[in-house]
Structure formats: C-alpha cells, structure tokens
Write a structure and sequence with these properties.
By secondary structure, the protein is mainly beta. The chain contains one helix and 66 strands.
Length: about 675
C-alpha cells in the first residue's frame, strides 16, 4: 500500500537536493581554482620554504630567488630575473619573455613539455641547465651565456640566438629548424640527433651530428667544426670552415653543395650523386680521402702570401662529372689513379697556375667522342713555370680512351741525357686506343735547355731508350704568356711510349724527308738530310707487319756536314704484301736515332698498267682500277702524284727522266722523258 506524499515532504526533498548541488559546485570550484604567485616587487623575492603554485609569474623588474627550495609549478613565466640558487625548478611549461635567468650553482630547471623563450638573457654566474621534455621555440633576440640544455623534442629558432659560452652540453634529440639567426660568438658545441632545416642563417659554431639516416636541408654556411658520427644526407649547402671529421657517413644528395676549408673530411664521404659538388677551399694543404665524386672543385681563399695550396689524393679517385680549379691551387695524384669514366664538355677546367701535379700516378679518361678534345692542365710542381699541359683530339668516328701514366722532368737517350742537349725536360707517357688522333704538348719557356731552338723543333717518342721522330720539324706555336706547344698526329705504333720535345739540332741528322715508293715492282727508299753531326751510318729496317723490324741495308753517312745530302736504296726483293720501313742512324759514339715509319702498299704482280703518252705535256696511266700514282725522279724521290685513268699534265716538270709508278699495278715501261 502506497504512502501518500504531502506537499511538505516534497518541499524538504527539493531543499535537500539543492544543498547537495551547491556542495558539489563548491567542490568543483575548489578543484579548478588556480593558485598563482605574482612576484612584482623590485627587490629580490627570496624564500626557503615556498608552497607549490600552479603558476608563477615573475614580472618585469622583479627578481625571484627560490633559494634552496625545490619549486614545482605547472607554468613558469619570467619577465624579470630568475636566480635558481641551489634549488631546482620543475614546471610543465616555461616562458621566458624579456627576462633573465642565471643559476648560481649550476642546478637544473626541468620543463616537462614545451618552452618558449623571447628576448631573453640566460646564464651568468654558474651554468644553468635546461631539461626540456617537449619543444623549445626561440623568438626575438636571445643570448645564452653560460648555459646548457637538452631538448627532447624539436628546437626552432625564429629570431636571433647568440650562444656565448663553451661550457655545458647543448643537445637536441629532435629536429632543428632555423628560420632566424643562430650565432655562435665563441664556438658553442651542439649535439643534434634529428634533421636540420635552415632557411635562415648560421654563423660559426661546432656541430656534432649523431642521428641515423637523417638529413640536412637549406643552407648552413660558415660552420666552424662539423663532426659526423651518425649518418646524414646533405640536400642543400653546407660550409665547414675549420674541422670536418667524424667516424660517421656524410652523403651528398643530388645537386647538393659541400664547401670545406678543413684539411680532411669524415671517414665516409659519399659524393657520387648526380649534380652534387664538393668544393675544397683552403689556403693550406689538404688530404682528399673520398674515392668517388660527381663534381670536385679545388679552390682557395685569397692570401697575401700568394702561396698556392696543394690538395693530395689519399686513394684512387673517380670523377663522374667534372674537375674544376677555380683559383690558383693544385691537385697532387700521389701515385694514385684519377679516372674520368665519361667525357663531357666541362671535364677539366682550370684557371692559370692551377691544375694537376703529375709526378706519379695516372690519369684515365674514357669515351672521348669523335672530333672532341680533352686538355689536361699538368704541372711538375705548384709553380706556373712548371706548366706542362697535354691535349688529345679524337679524329675517329668512334669514341676512344686516353691514359696518361707519367709526367717526368728528366730526359735521356741511351739511358742518359745532359742539360746541354737541346731538349724540353717535359716527358709524357701516353697510351690511346685511337689510331687517328692529334696530340698537343705544352711547356713553359723556362723549362727549355739553353741550346733548345723552339723555331726548329719536333715531337719525339722514346722506344727502348732510343728517341724516334714522331712529327716533322716545325716552329713551336705560341700560347698564353710564356707557353709554347707543338702538335702531331697520334699513331698506333707510338701508343704507350714516352713523348718529348726536342729541337732539330739535337738529332744527329736533320732529316728533311724519308719516303718509300713502288718503282717497277721494287720498293725505292729515299731520304734527305739537311745537316749531319757525327753521322757514322744508316741502317734500313724492314717489316711486313709494322711491328717486327729487321735490317735490310747499311748505308754510310757523311760524318759532319751542314749541306744537304740525298740517299736512296732499291729493295729488289719482290714482295706483294704491304711493306714497312724505318731508318736508324748511328753516330760515332754509338747513339741511335730512328725515323718515323713509312710503308708501301700491297702489290699484285699479275695486274699490269700501261703508260700512254698523249702529247708532249700530257699522258695517262691505264690501270684495271683507279689507283694513286707517283712521279719519281732518277733518285727515287717523289716529285708529284696523280690518279690513274685520268689525263696527267706534266708541263710543270723540269726537263729530265722520270718514272711513273702505280700504287698496286706493275708498269711494263714506266719511263717518262720530259724535254
């Protein structure tokens, strides 16, 4: 049975509920109430026993010194000055806005979450230590004097931060973002475990990169010291002024730029990405340990002493792109191999008094295209007077490879040669796959011996301690300043030899020409000397393959003479294949000089030609196939050439007896009488 509810009971019940709600609201109000400590006085606010507050605000002009207390607060805002004394401060968030903080006993302030520092001065007596569990943001102008910090999150610099102490560890476990200005007045050390992105400015400072598979973005210029202990990839521009070291890995991304003034680089520098450049820029000497570059640039800062630094290889090195010398400096190969696997138009570029010191080691350049050249700026030392460039032009339709294995400053013939001989002491040892190239050798005039005559010189090559002519005598061409050069066509028979430059007076004989022609089924060899010096005799060497020669005749020389002399020899042996000849001259002291190789084409004795005289000044040589024809005088010397099966006009010949010879065919009666 239900009990009736009276109005009085309902009223009491409502009052009771309202009281409960009021009590609950009061309890809620007490729970959310925030205790705030405002420190506003201009004098020092010190305490030894301070109750904990939710928020502590140090107003501008006030000084707060907790003394020996351990202060815990959710939020600490400093506009004035904070002295932590011997105590410790723990807060969830910290804002230093226009304030100043110093720690008299190097104790720690711990920020559980984020920290914002604006226009602050931190440090002074003692070394404040920050432990920031979240991120830290610097805005405005902030100076960190004697201080240390560890940031678990990211560090972002939007304004200007000036680090002015060498004490204490600065460590950032997260990323570093710089859109403002990070200034290191006295070389602060910063340890970084994350990525670095710099769209602002960095000045000086020491950085240690400790992260794994991290990256650098933007521009980091004028870093004093960079230690790479982790693995970092540079995607922008990094400049290291003094020390670049570490056991980690520094990787250049595509089109990245690394500028180093340091004497060495980290243990593992990887710089093979397309388009990236490593620029070595130092007034002193540098050791280069990296084994592969895309673009390598050697440069230096201006120095009043005018000393030219030398960068030295520490191992075999490959350059995939280009090698540049933008200022006066040198790269020493140090017995190592410098390889360019792919030719390009900017393969090697150098200003004056800059290039490769090449007393040892080798240079390999591959895939030089048809009709293209490569010029190597070579030097014996870091002096312009030791200039010794070499240039190769590929005249083939196919690509070719080029190997330079030695550049020496001695000369010898039959093992020795003195400075009194007319030579340029610049020796090149060159190998080329091309059989149709042009070789040019350069030298400074101060490298010439006193009796060298640059108006009458030629290129020679050394074959078994015997210098052999590689080009006809000519006048050296004038280059820039005091540089001269000569050029000659490159042939297979000279590939792999040492090349040099000598004047005609060095040779025991001044050879005007040396020819080999077919004359009625026989080979006729004719040569002329413009002068002879101690010329004992000539030996005519013969070969059917152009490689293996044997003597076929000996002809006495004239001794010493300043007049022209003509020599000839008829090789009566009937040989139908191509035949090669070389002239060896012996002087009275036993020294030997060899000429260039000449040859006659293959001869088919079954093919005959007929010489038909058309008039007193015209004739025609009829052959089964068109051939190259020669006009020889009675000594065998070639006077003129023409094509068979075409009318030949010989009205320009002086009266006398001549002989017409075909390149392949045998002529029954080849005598031509001119009246």
């Amino acid at each position: 049975m239900k009990t009736a509810t009276t109005p009085k009971n309902n009223y009491e019940r409502i009052i009771k509920y309202c009281m409960l709600i009021a009590i609950y609201c009061l309890s809620l109000n007490g729970a959310f109430a925030q205790s705030v400590l405002h420190i506003t006085n201009s004098d020092t606010y010190a305490c030894t026993a301070l109750a904990n507050y939710d928020k502590i605000i140090v107003e501008n002009g006030a000084v707060f010194q907790p003394g020996t207390c351990a202060i815990t607060t959710k939020e600490l805002v400093v506009h004035g000055k904070l002295r932590s004394g011997t105590g410790k401060i723990t807060c969830e968030t910290l804002t230093i806005d226009g304030g100043e903080w110093e720690s008299l006993s190097a104790k720690t302030i711990t920020v559980k979450y984020d920290c914002r520092i604006v226009n602050a001065v931190i440090g002074g007596a003692g070394t404040p230590e920050f432990a920031i569990g979240g991120n830290v943001v610097f805005e405005g102008n902030t100076t960190l004097n004697e201080s240390a910090f560890t940031v678990t999150g990211n560090m972002e610099i939007r304004g200007t931060v000036d680090l002015q102490s060498r004490t204490g560890v600065k460590r950032v476990m997260g990323n570093v973002l710089i859109s403002g200005f990070l200034k290191h007045s006295v070389g602060e050390n910063i340890e970084i475990y994350g990525n670095v992105t710099c769209s602002g400015t960095i000045e000086n400072g020491n950085y240690m990169l400790l992260g794994s598979n991290k990256a650098l973005y933007g521009t980091m210029m004028a870093i004093t010291r960079l230690d790479v202990e982790g693995s970092y990839t540079n995607h922008g521009t990094v400049e290291v002024k003094e020390t670049f070291a570490g056991a980690g890995t520094f990787i250049q991304a595509e089109n990245a730029l690394l500028i180093t003034h340091a004497p060495a680089e980290p243990a593992h520098l990887i710089a093979s990405a397309t388009g990236n450049t490593v620029r070595f820029m130092r007034n002193g000497n540098v050791t280069i340990s990296c084994s592969e570059f895309y673009n390598m640039e050697c440069s230096t800062t201006y120095n009043l002493n005018k000393t030219f630094p030398v960068f030295s290889l520490a191992q075999n090195t490959t350059i995939l792109g280009s090698l540049s010398f933008t200022r006066k400096c040198f790269l020493n190969l140090q017995n190592f191999v410098l390889t360019f696997p792919q030719w390009n138009e900017t393969l090697i570029r150098a200003v004056d008094t800059a290039g490769i010191i090449f007393n040892s080691g080798s240079i390999q350049i591959n895939e030089i295209p048809s009709q293209q050249s490569v010029r190597i700026p070579l030097y014996h030392s870091n002096k312009f007077q030791d200039y010794a460039h070499a240039k190769l032009t590929n005249n083939n339709e196919a690509t070719t490879n080029f190997l330079l294995t030695q550049l020496s400053d001695y000369v010898f013939v039959n093992s020795e040669m003195g400075s009194a001989l007319p030579f340029v002491p610049v020796m090149y040892e060159i190998t080329s796959q091309s059989n149709n190239s042009t070789l040019s050798l350069y030298w400074h005039n101060q490298r010439e011996t006193p009796v060298f005559d640059r108006n009458n010189c030629r290129m020679v090559f050394l074959n078994d301690n015997t210098w052999e002519a590689f080009s006809e005598k000519s006048q050296a061409q004038k280059g820039v300043k005091d540089i001269y050069y000569i050029s000659a066509d490159y042939a297979d028979n000279a590939s792999g030899f040492t090349f040099g430059i000598t004047s005609e007076s060095f040779l025991p004989v001044g050879l005007t020409y040396f020819t080999a022609t077919r004359l009625n089924g026989q080979n006729v060899l004719v040569w002329e000397t413009a002068s002879e010096h101690n010329c004992d005799y000539f030996v005519l060497l013969k070969s059917v393959d152009g490689l293996h020669f044997s003597p076929c005749a000996r002809i006495d020389g004239t001794g010493t003479s300043n007049f022209a002399h003509t020599y000839s020899f008829h090789d009566k042996e009937q040989i139908t294949c191509a035949t090669y000849y070389q002239l060896a001259q012996y002087d009275y002291d036993g020294a030997v000089w060899k000429s260039k190789i000449v040859s006659t084409p293959a001869f088919d004795s079954s093919t005959t030609a007929t010489l038909i005289r058309k008039s007193s000044t015209q004739c025609v040589l009829q052959t089964p196939h068109d051939e190259h024809c020669f006009v020889n005088d009675e000594s065998g010397r070639i006077i003129d050439t023409f094509q068979s099966n075409t009318l030949y006009n010989f009205s320009h010949l002086t009266p006398g007896i001549y002989f017409i010879n075909a390149e392949h065919s045998k002529i029954v009666n080849n005598r031509l009488i001119v009246r």
